[in-house]
Amino acid sequence: MYSRFRTLVHNDHFLKLLKNQKFRFISPELYNTSATAGRVITGKAAVAWEAGKPLVIEKVEVAPPQANEVRVKIKYTSLCHTDVHFWEAKGQTGLFPRIFGHEAAGVVENVGDGVKNLKPGDHVLPVFTG
């Protein structure tokens, strides 16, 4: 089963921190991002379909970024207290299906029109903006 999700990165504070880093872990030239530009890609994700139910590992489709959006290849992620809170749907109406793991590290794969502060190959830290 495929579901469509988009990963967005738009926190100016973290963008400034990343711009000021004195080194790069991996050279941006090592990432061949042109092969996926403008295309839907598939990947695996732990998807929550209902509040409090076990996460299901399944294939998902990730749309290309639209205007002012960024598609990020996630390298590392974890579940934090905020994820668990929203997974349990405590005190709010749950929005499902949902992919958790906003505390992550990844590499910009593609950028949409209007994105000026990021380019393919940049290392980023996605953040929760509920």
Note down, in words, how this protein is organized.
The protein is mainly β and 130 residues long. It has helices at 12-19, 81-87; strands at 4-5, 41-48, 56-62, 70-78, 98-99, 103-111, 123-124. The strands form two sheets. A four-stranded mixed sheet has the order 1-3-2-5, with no helix packed on it. The radius of gyration is 15 Å and the shape is globular. The two termini are 26 Å apart. Mean pLDDT is 77; it is low at 1-11 and 22-30.
Quaternary class: single chain
Radius of gyration: 15 Å
User: How many beta strands in the DSSP annotation?
Assistant: 7
* Percent of residues in helices: 10-25%
Helix and strand content put the structural class at: mainly beta
Large-scale geometry: globular
Taking the sheet with the most strands, its summary is: 4 strands, mixed
What number is the mean pLDDT? Answer: 77
Number of helices: 2
N-to-C series of helices and strands = EHEEEHEEE
Secondary structure layout plus pairing:
Blueprint: E1 4-5, H1 12-19, E2 41-48, E3 56-62, E4 70-78, H2 81-87, E5 98-99, E6 103-111, E7 123-124
Parallel strand pairs: 1-3
Antiparallel strand pairs: 2-3, 2-5, 4-6, 6-7
Write a short abstract of this structure.
This protein is mainly beta.
Keywords for this entry:
130 residues; mainly beta; 4-stranded mixed beta sheet; 3-stranded antiparallel beta sheet; 2 helices
